[in-house]
């Protein structure tokens, strides 16, 4: 990156360290922190949407829909989330390919599952084998993001369902007394009031989501764990910057990163909790009211 | 090979008893169920031991966090923040890399008159190294739960103990601690469940599976990668874990009933699974 780094063997000390920390691979390592943040930025709203949908389905008066919603929320209880992270991407991938196979190659007669192979016609492959490398990588990332959204959506559905139940019944009864339809009562009364009950659970979920991001590594995405292992492993003198096994230091950096994220989130969520409990008939709101007086 | 033969060959494969080679072709449902079930032994081993030792440390951590002495309080707070604020996955990696760096021959501790050599190579094995991480991790999570419960012990209980002339250790052992356990127990049950779930991470985080002796998820991914069919192996392990979860809830429910036996029927808290506590 710097011109002084042209010959790594001749430099020493801090200059060496500076040059070492700005090699091309290290820049990719720093960019992979962006991948983690991107995953958080995509997954959090998506999981919230999944969770909202799941909670609405679980409250639906229509029985089959209610059963789907309940099954979705019950899914994450009892089964480790990592199993879903391993299962959902492969299952979705094969599901998509199977659907495309049915549509694009209707005259294909051979079976798709042959022993230990899953073979679809070339036109149905996802992504197409002719597509460039970045499409393959972003497809992998998209699958991972989808898996995260589905699993955390189920967690969020639990929280939101509970929060909807926690809104005092009298509020809905008042809405009915004013002649609101169930739909109006839901959107105008229930949903605005539910957030303060949902917030503790949702902030807990956010913390869990942050701490689940290293699992991206298991899904084959080149994330921070991948690069920490890659860069930290001992390098012989064949490399430009030989060093012994430094993986401990790389993982310490990751640890510091996650601790920082946790601390920052705690502070932001604390403020948000204060903001949302303003004027609510809860213990938190009551304490604010007394303090203001 | 009948299913019984498969069971004899692979039932204890995860601890190294039975057939040496894993099945390679023509995977049957029986092989799935047997081998994944055999891997569950390791999940139970990690879960039960980490929970048992972690319980003791968690009590110490909770008391430390509630202590007025800052030399006890600060370390406990940092311990909890360190292990609750970072992903278990990273903790596993970091611990493994640290244990690997320890000198193979052991560490010499000079005691003046003699020198003790502490062997360290076993720490880089999964059975010990991962157990240490899980133990510290669950101690931090349950310590926080116990601390919260300790702070919500009713004031009246303590005043009643004072009125009876109890103080110090006897007040703690006979009044405060049982109430703390009673209040913490539902949340602690959740923690136990998620600890068992967390044990599946061990063999994905640096710790190698020696001679393919792994846990349930290790074998499930083995099958899924060989057959390229996730629809058998993962549902099988999911079923195992649902059973394990129900078992944990039942066992902890028995203790919960005992802790609450003095309360009137209507006030007894029931354990509800609230999955808001994973790592």
Name of the CATH first level of chain B: Mainly Alpha
Proper CATH architecture of chain A? Orthogonal Bundle
User: What's the number of extended β-strand segments of chain B?
Assistant: 2
Rg over CA atoms of chain B: 22 Å
- How much of the sequence lies in strands of chain B comes to under 5%
Number of helices of chain A: 10
The structural domain count of chain B equals 1
Assembly level: heterodimer
| CATH 4th-level superfamily of chain A | MetI-like
Strand order of the largest sheet of chain B: 1-2
By CATH, the superfamily of chain B comes out as MetI-like
Q: Mind explaining what this structure looks like?
A:
- The complex is a heterodimer of chains A (about 290) and B (about 280).
- Chain A is mainly alpha-helical and about 290 residues long.
- Chain A has 10 helices and 2 strands, in the order H-H-H-H-E-E-H-H-H-H-H-H.
- In chain A, strand 1 and strand 2 form a beta hairpin.
- Chain A is flat and about 80 Å long.
- Chain B has about 280 residues and is mostly helical.
- Chain B contains 9 helices and 2 strands, in the order ααααββααααα.
- Chain B has helices spanning about 5-10, 30-65, 70-85, 90-100, 125-150, 155-165, 170-200, 215-225, 230-260, and strands spanning about 105-110, 115-120.
- In chain B, strand 1 and strand 2 (about 115-120) form a beta hairpin.
- Residues about 275-279 of chain B have low confidence and may be disordered.
- Classes of the chains: A mainly alpha (about 290), B mainly alpha (about 280).
- At the A-B interface, helix 4, strand 2, helix 5, helix 7 and helix 8 of A face helix 3, helix 4, helix 7, helix 8 and helix 9 of B.
